[in-house]
Design goal:
Elements lengths: L1 H26 L6 H7 L14 H26 L5 H9 L2 H5 L6 H5 L8 H21 L8 H21 L3 H15 L5
């Protein structure tokens, strides 16, 4: 009986973290209220403290989950794309119109980047860890992986992708949004030497 209860509590905890990960990307950290998150998870507000010691603890887990989902999306591309095309496929998926429109399920860094510096150390640590994972994943796909400058190029690539996605989401002009994505893809594309 205890094992079933533990599994049920873990599943409920997971539902709350999933709802919180969507909420922070949709509404920002400040707009992610406990009552709304619990309602989205299909639970009552009263059960929150059975799962988390504080709202901040939940936000840290939500930041980690949201960042992990972005890394997992890129890892799926790596595992299903021919090696000579994987970096381009990652950039195309990240800078796709679908990703621009999928704020609630998309990249947490692009959705929350300007808010992260004002969050608790736990939230910042989770975000930093996931950003480093993304940079490392991009670096490993680079044709110059292992060479001097490969890590720096990955830093630039990730920064450009996140910046372009952030701007493409920010503007209210669909043509400008598309132009931002397309220009970034064009200028990040590996050149044939």
């Amino acid at each position: 009986m205890k094992r079933t209860t533990t599994r049920s509590k873990e599943a409920t905890h997971d539902r709350i973290v999933d709802a919180a990960a969507r909420a922070i990307r949709r509404n920002g950290y400040g707009g992610a209220g406990v009552a709304d998150i619990m309602k989205d998870a299909g639970l009552t507000h009263g059960g929150f403290y059975a799962h988390f010691p504080s709202r901040e603890a939940m936000l840290a887990e939500a930041a980690d989950r949201a960042g992990g989902e972005s890394v997992a999306m890129m890892e799926r591309i790596v595992s299903t794309t021919p090696p000579d095309r994987v970096l381009q496929a990652m950039m195309e998926a990240y800078l796709s119109k679908m990703h621009v429109e999928a704020v609630e399920a998309g990249c947490a860094t692009a959705a929350l980047g300007s808010e992260i510096p004002r969050q608790t150390p736990e939230v910042r640590r989770a975000a930093t860890r996931r950003i480093k994972e993304m940079i490392d994943l991009v670096a490993r796909q680079s044709p110059d992986w292992g060479q001097p400058g490969a890590h720096e190029h990955a830093l630039f690539t990730v920064a450009a992708m996140v910046g372009a996605l952030t701007l493409a989401r920010a503007v209210d002009d669909p043509k400008l949004s598309d132009a931002l994505r397309e220009a970034t893809l064009k200028n990040l594309a590996p050149t044939d030497s």
